[in-house]
Design a protein that fits this description.
The protein has about 300 residues and is of the alpha/beta class. The protein has helices at about 25-40, 45, 55-60, 90-100, 125-135, 155-160, 180, 185-200, 220-230, 255-270, 285-304; strands at about 40-45, 65, 105-110, 140-145, 165-170, 205-210, 235-240, 275. An 8-stranded mixed β-sheet has the order 1-2-3-4-5-6-7-8, with helices on both faces. The radius of gyration is 18 Å and the shape is globular. Mean pLDDT is about 85; it is low at about 1-10.
Amino acid sequence: MTTSQKQPSEPVLRKPLWLKRSLPKGENFSYVRSLISKGNLHTVCQEAKCPNMWECFSNRTATFLIMGSQCTRNCRFCNIDSGKPQTIDPMEPENVASASAAMGLSYVVVTSVTRDDLPDGGASCFAETITAIRRKLPEAHVEVLIPDLQGDPEALGVVLAARPDVLNHNIETVPRLYPQARPQASYKRSLELLRRVSQHRPEIPGKSGLMVGLGETRDEMLRTFADLLENGCRILTIGQYLQPTKLHLPVERYVPPEEFEELKEQALSLGFLQVASGPLIRSSYKARELRDAFDDSRGEATEH
């Protein structure tokens, strides 16, 4: 089912002032957009209509979206199209590495659509992309935001063997809302993926992200925090769900900035080492700063 075939939802709520952002502008923005187009690449910034795209592109950063722009799943919160997936471009890893070098990146974030049609869920594509970036930019750090790989531990092992500096897998929402928000995903399977990362490659930080505003309760959020911690996740992002179109799930509530601060403090008090929480926070937003702060936090925890 494509995005255009999704059933319409409730009318879009008016956004509060704290969610207003400036329009894209500047030479850097145009340069990054042109570079991505010429390289036949995709970014989650563009495909998912990220509200931070203008800021990231203007700062010559982007989150690369590999394996095409068509997802094999149909999550009701996501703007990325679902449908027949595209053929894998064998030059994509090198193109991502070349674009990263041209942008002068020292921290590269790579994600993908979900490719349930591939035997390994796209794990080898992630590994090849990490390797290509490291070959082109040996000093760069690489963070990957991966799908659940259908729970295949061998596929996850392929990604981990390529030694990403951070492995992110978003839990997205509380388990009660999975049937309506992520009908083809599994809360348990996502937690299991994070647990395997912490067990088999404890030196690679496990990271995850949650949306708010879909109808979750505070108690449900805290239980999900506890589940993530129990399964080895130590870096957390929390952001406001924004309805991409009237065909997607409606926003049940716009959470004010002060509540994001409260959620951050609660998550830190439970045991997360680093938390980014705010209305416009996305899983890859200022990823390097979050990783650097995590390293500092881990060092302090070791000293004590």
